[in-house]
Write a structure and sequence with these properties.
Radius of gyration: 37 Å
Largest sheet: 3 strands, antiparallel
Helix content: 55-70%
Shape: elongated
Strand order of the largest sheet: 1-2-5
Distance between the termini: 106 Å
Order of helices and strands: HHHHEEEEE
Length: about 160
């Protein structure tokens, strides 16, 4: 019986080989990577458009993000100055000078007169409004910022 099983297995293998004709040229073409008939290069156009859009987003971010970072740094310095102004008893003009120096370091387009400071023994309030012009290719936009800071004495 065992011999019959081997003979049957060989018959099946032989029968399958006879039933499925294999053309060696088809196998070789698949290995080489022959182009399919349905490919027309449309994927290349999509790739170019996606890369162009990503490049535009990166370029816009390079132009816009620094203005927001500078605003954050200015607001942080204003908060710091408001705290120190109460402790060190700075005058309004001293606080204004310190904030204006920070504006110049950060290249923020603000005038010294735009910095509003209210200072007395109990409270220090600092506010500033300024606009940063941004040009992104052919589009012009103005970013408006208004950082403020207030600190009250503990006593």
């Amino acid at each position: 019986m065992a011999g019959d099983a081997n003979a049957l297995g060989e018959l099946i293998q032989v029968d399958f080989r006879k039933m499925i004709p294999v053309d060696k040229r088809d196998i070789r073409d698949r290995r080489i990577g022959a182009p399919c008939r349905s490919e027309r290069g449309a994927g290349q156009l999509k790739t170019i458009l996606v890369v162009a859009i990503i490049a535009l987003i990166i370029y816009s971010a390079i132009k816009i993000v620094p203005a927001y970072v500078n605003n954050y740094q200015l607001a942080d310095k204003m908060e710091e100055q408001a705290r120190f102004a109460i402790v060190n008893r700075y005058t309004e003009e001293q606080v204004r000078d310190n904030i204006f120096k920070v504006c110049q370091e950060l290249e923020i387009p603000a005038k010294k007169e735009d910095i509003k400071v209210v200072s007395n023994n109990a409270v220090v309030k600092i506010s500033l409004q300024y606009t940063v012009p941004v040009d992104v290719l052919t589009y012009h936009m103005d970013l408006h910022f208004a950082p403020t800071s207030e600190n009250k004495a503990l006593i």
